[in-house]
Amino acid sequence: MAEQGAFLTPTLVTYAEMNDWPGYLPPESAKKNSVVLEAGIRSLKIASEAGVTICFGTDLLGPLGSAQTREFSIRSKVLSSVDLLRTATVNPARMLRVEDKLGQIKPGFVADLLILESNPLEDITILDSPDKHLFAVMKEGRVYHSRWSKLPVDAPIPVFFIQ
Prior knowledge:
By secondary structure, this protein is an alpha+beta fold.
Protein backbone atom coordinates (compact mmCIF):
# COMPACT_ATOMS: atom_id res chain seq x y z
CA MET A 1 0.00 0.00 0.00
CA ALA A 2 2.75 2.44 0.93
CA GLU A 3 4.64 1.78 -2.31
CA GLN A 4 1.49 2.46 -4.34
CA GLY A 5 0.63 5.62 -2.40
CA ALA A 6 -2.65 4.15 -1.16
CA PHE A 7 -4.46 5.63 1.83
CA LEU A 8 -5.94 3.54 4.62
CA THR A 9 -9.03 4.71 6.52
CA PRO A 10 -9.92 1.93 8.93
CA THR A 11 -13.10 2.01 10.97
CA LEU A 12 -12.45 0.15 14.20
CA VAL A 13 -14.87 1.91 16.52
CA THR A 14 -17.82 0.22 14.82
CA TYR A 15 -16.77 -3.14 16.25
CA ALA A 16 -16.31 -1.70 19.74
CA GLU A 17 -19.62 0.17 19.67
CA MET A 18 -21.68 -2.82 18.55
CA ASN A 19 -20.29 -4.82 21.46
CA ASP A 20 -21.22 -2.06 23.92
CA TRP A 21 -24.95 -2.32 23.14
CA PRO A 22 -26.27 -5.24 25.21
CA GLY A 23 -28.31 -7.65 23.13
CA TYR A 24 -27.46 -5.89 19.85
CA LEU A 25 -25.50 -8.90 18.63
CA PRO A 26 -25.86 -12.58 19.41
CA PRO A 27 -23.05 -13.75 21.76
CA GLU A 28 -21.13 -15.52 18.98
CA SER A 29 -21.20 -12.38 16.80
CA ALA A 30 -20.08 -10.19 19.71
CA LYS A 31 -17.15 -12.54 20.29
CA LYS A 32 -16.25 -12.40 16.58
CA ASN A 33 -16.46 -8.58 16.71
CA SER A 34 -13.89 -8.57 19.52
CA VAL A 35 -11.58 -10.80 17.47
CA VAL A 36 -12.02 -8.57 14.40
CA LEU A 37 -11.34 -5.43 16.47
CA GLU A 38 -8.08 -6.84 17.86
CA ALA A 39 -7.02 -7.96 14.36
CA GLY A 40 -7.83 -4.48 13.06
CA ILE A 41 -5.65 -2.89 15.74
CA ARG A 42 -2.76 -5.21 14.82
CA SER A 43 -3.28 -4.42 11.13
CA LEU A 44 -3.18 -0.71 11.90
CA LYS A 45 0.19 -1.16 13.60
CA ILE A 46 1.54 -3.17 10.66
CA ALA A 47 0.32 -0.53 8.18
CA SER A 48 1.84 2.29 10.21
CA GLU A 49 5.19 0.53 10.49
CA ALA A 50 5.12 -0.11 6.73
CA GLY A 51 4.69 3.62 6.05
CA VAL A 52 1.08 3.50 4.84
CA THR A 53 -0.66 6.86 5.08
CA ILE A 54 -3.54 6.43 7.52
CA CYS A 55 -6.58 8.71 7.64
CA PHE A 56 -9.40 9.17 10.14
CA GLY A 57 -12.99 8.27 9.43
CA THR A 58 -15.83 6.12 10.68
CA ASP A 59 -19.04 4.61 9.39
CA LEU A 60 -21.07 5.54 12.46
CA LEU A 61 -24.37 7.25 11.75
CA GLY A 62 -27.47 8.26 13.67
CA PRO A 63 -27.35 7.65 17.42
CA LEU A 64 -23.89 6.10 17.12
CA GLY A 65 -22.48 9.24 15.48
CA SER A 66 -21.46 10.72 18.81
CA ALA A 67 -19.07 7.78 19.35
CA GLN A 68 -16.96 8.61 16.28
CA THR A 69 -14.20 10.23 18.30
CA ARG A 70 -13.71 7.01 20.29
CA GLU A 71 -11.72 5.87 17.25
CA PHE A 72 -8.82 7.99 18.59
CA SER A 73 -8.63 5.99 21.83
CA ILE A 74 -8.84 2.68 20.03
CA ARG A 75 -6.07 3.63 17.63
CA SER A 76 -3.95 5.01 20.49
CA LYS A 77 -3.15 1.42 21.43
CA VAL A 78 -0.71 1.33 18.50
CA LEU A 79 -0.29 4.91 17.23
CA SER A 80 1.28 7.92 18.93
CA SER A 81 -0.77 11.03 19.62
CA VAL A 82 1.15 12.91 16.92
CA ASP A 83 0.41 10.20 14.37
CA LEU A 84 -3.25 10.11 15.44
CA LEU A 85 -3.62 13.85 14.92
CA ARG A 86 -2.01 13.50 11.50
CA THR A 87 -4.67 10.91 10.59
CA ALA A 88 -7.32 13.61 11.06
CA THR A 89 -5.46 16.60 9.61
CA VAL A 90 -2.55 16.49 7.16
CA ASN A 91 -3.15 12.94 5.90
CA PRO A 92 -6.75 13.47 4.73
CA ALA A 93 -5.69 16.77 3.15
CA ARG A 94 -3.08 14.83 1.16
CA MET A 95 -5.62 12.15 0.25
CA LEU A 96 -8.01 14.82 -1.08
CA ARG A 97 -5.13 16.65 -2.79
CA VAL A 98 -5.80 19.87 -0.90
CA GLU A 99 -2.67 19.81 1.27
CA ASP A 100 -1.81 23.29 0.00
CA LYS A 101 -4.77 24.78 1.90
CA LEU A 102 -6.08 22.30 4.51
CA GLY A 103 -4.79 20.15 7.33
CA GLN A 104 -2.30 22.54 8.93
CA ILE A 105 -2.22 25.79 10.83
CA LYS A 106 -0.20 27.99 8.48
CA PRO A 107 -0.56 31.44 6.91
CA GLY A 108 -2.85 31.24 3.90
CA PHE A 109 -4.45 27.95 4.94
CA VAL A 110 -8.17 27.58 5.64
CA ALA A 111 -8.81 28.13 9.35
CA ASP A 112 -10.52 24.88 10.36
CA LEU A 113 -9.76 24.53 14.06
CA LEU A 114 -10.79 22.80 17.24
CA ILE A 115 -9.95 24.72 20.38
CA LEU A 116 -9.50 22.32 23.27
CA GLU A 117 -9.07 22.77 27.00
CA SER A 118 -5.85 20.74 27.04
CA ASN A 119 -3.21 19.31 24.76
CA PRO A 120 -4.25 16.16 22.84
CA LEU A 121 -0.57 15.34 22.36
CA GLU A 122 -0.42 14.70 26.10
CA ASP A 123 -3.77 12.86 26.27
CA ILE A 124 -5.44 11.94 22.99
CA THR A 125 -8.50 10.62 24.85
CA ILE A 126 -9.71 14.20 25.41
CA LEU A 127 -10.99 13.97 21.84
CA ASP A 128 -13.38 11.22 22.97
CA SER A 129 -15.34 13.70 25.10
CA PRO A 130 -15.89 16.84 23.05
CA ASP A 131 -18.75 17.94 25.30
CA LYS A 132 -16.23 18.13 28.13
CA HIS A 133 -12.99 19.22 26.44
CA LEU A 134 -13.97 21.16 23.30
CA PHE A 135 -14.15 24.93 23.72
CA ALA A 136 -14.76 26.01 20.14
CA VAL A 137 -15.06 24.89 16.53
CA MET A 138 -13.96 27.11 13.66
CA LYS A 139 -14.53 26.27 10.02
CA GLU A 140 -13.10 28.48 7.32
CA GLY A 141 -12.35 31.06 10.00
CA ARG A 142 -15.95 31.27 11.25
CA VAL A 143 -16.99 30.20 14.74
CA TYR A 144 -19.68 27.50 14.64
CA HIS A 145 -19.54 26.45 18.28
CA SER A 146 -18.09 28.20 21.32
CA ARG A 147 -18.23 27.85 25.08
CA TRP A 148 -16.23 31.07 25.49
CA SER A 149 -18.10 34.33 26.02
CA LYS A 150 -15.24 36.24 24.35
CA LEU A 151 -15.42 34.08 21.22
CA PRO A 152 -19.01 34.41 20.01
CA VAL A 153 -20.57 32.12 17.44
CA ASP A 154 -20.75 33.95 14.11
CA ALA A 155 -22.10 31.20 11.85
CA PRO A 156 -25.05 28.84 12.07
CA ILE A 157 -24.28 25.17 12.62
CA PRO A 158 -24.59 23.44 9.24
CA VAL A 159 -26.98 20.53 8.92
CA PHE A 160 -24.10 18.04 8.58
CA PHE A 161 -22.46 19.15 11.85
CA ILE A 162 -22.78 16.51 14.59
CA GLN A 163 -23.02 17.86 18.12
